[in-house]
Design a protein that fits this description.
Blueprint: H1 2-25, E1 27-32, E2 35-41, H2 47-58, E3 69-71, E4 75-78, E5 119-122, E6 135-138, E7 151-157, H3 159-162, E8 183-186
Antiparallel strand pairs: 1-2, 1-8, 2-7, 3-4, 4-6, 5-6, 5-7
Length: 187
């Protein structure tokens, strides 16, 4: 009986550490001027998009990137590492939103995950397989995007800071003096 209890205890401890390690690998911290945002990544739904997001974050490509398109009640878009990085010599606010990364575009990984408040999804052109580095965070539910864009994560803490991102003043949500991603890293 003691042997059985010891085995169960060992299994419980091992499961805890495995789950804790796995959970931390799937959590990112998005630092904004008003506070930190915790993002859970959906590796099971969009493994290639998650891999790209983590890769660019580890390379510090998202640090300093502007939220170039922010529409009240809809979404905040960022992630143009080519033209939207305010720390880069290539930074050009007029071109922000037209660039990507040095890596090839990603094949769509559409799923049944809904675009609801806090959802992270990859931006793309009219070609479903054109997602690269740009992403958006939904302020509210946007069911018209479901199964049209790749959902790859969700804000699990700090959505109130996302709500404070400066909204666009242009016709398509363009932001003239945009907020930036201070940093993006694994938890």
């Amino acid at each position: 009986m003691k042997s059985m209890i010891k085995k169960l205890f060992f299994i419980c401890i091992l499961t805890f550490f495995i789950n804790d390690t796995y959970a931390k690998e799937d959590i990112m911290i998005l630092k904004l001027k008003n506070g930190d945002v915790e993002i859970e990544l959906y590796n099971d739904l969009a493994p290639n998009h998650v891999k790209r997001f983590i890769k660019l974050a580890e390379e510090k490509k998202y640090d300093g990137v502007v939220f170039h398109r922010v529409i009240e009640g809809f979404m905040a878009q960022s992630g143009d590492v080519k033209y939207g990085n305010s720390n880069s010599e290539n930074y050009n606010l007029k071109l922000a939103g037209t660039g990507g990364s040095e890596y090839p575009d990603l094949k769509a990984e559409f799923s049944n995950a809904n675009h609801e408040r806090g959802t992270l999804s990859m931006a793309r052109s009219s070609d479903p397989n054109s997602a690269n580095s740009q992403f958006f965070i939904c302020f509210n539910s946007a069911p018209h995007l479901d199964r049209q864009y790749t959902v790859f994560g969700k804000v699990i803490n700090g959505m109130e800071f996302v709500d404070l991102i400066k909204k666009g003043d242009g016709s398509n949500g363009e932001v003239s003096d945009p907020d930036i991603i201070i940093s993006l890293s694994k938890k």
